[in-house]
Structures are given as structure tokens and as C-alpha cells.
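Quiz preparation item.
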């Protein structure tokens, strides 16, 4: 219930200020995808929450799990907008 209330209030305030809330699906693999532009490699090993950093075998960029996930969520929201 707490998440639903948070979302309701967020959408209310967004409408109040003329903004839009874009919802990225809960099944979107944000921490699994390489956020490097043009890469997009999917690393299924990151499903393990103990994996905090990983190197993309395709483009060799080292990703922090949380920073990479945040960047992927931003990119997906822009795509959906």
C-alpha cells in the first residue's frame, strides 16, 4: 500500500506542476543491460544481488550495478516518453 500511495501522490504533484510521471515496467532488466550507448549487452549474472560491479564482455566498460541500473531506467523512460 505504501508504494501505491507514494505513486498516487507523485502523480498528483506532477499533474499539479504540469509534469509527467513515466512508469518503467517492474520486469525491465535495468541492472542487467549495459548502459553504454550502442552496446546493450544483457548480463544475466547480475540477477545475483551480491554482484555489485561487472565488466561488459562486449564493450569492456566496468559498471557499478546501481549507477548502471539508474542510467538504464533514465534511457527507458526517455524511450517511452
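Solution:
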Amino acid at each position: 500500500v505504501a508504494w501505491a500511495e507514494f505513486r498516487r501522490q507523485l502523480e498528483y504533484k506532477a499533474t499539479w506542476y504540469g509534469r509527467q510521471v513515466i512508469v518503467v515496467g517492474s520486469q525491465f532488466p535495468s541492472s542487467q543491460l549495459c548502459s553504454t550507448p550502442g552496446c546493450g549487452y544483457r548480463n544475466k549474472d547480475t540477477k545475483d544481488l551480491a554482484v555489485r560491479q561487472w565488466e561488459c564482455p562486449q564493450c569492456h566498460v566496468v559498471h557499478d550495478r546501481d549507477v548502471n541500473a539508474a542510467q538504464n531506467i533514465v534511457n527507458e523512460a526517455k524511450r517511452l516518453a
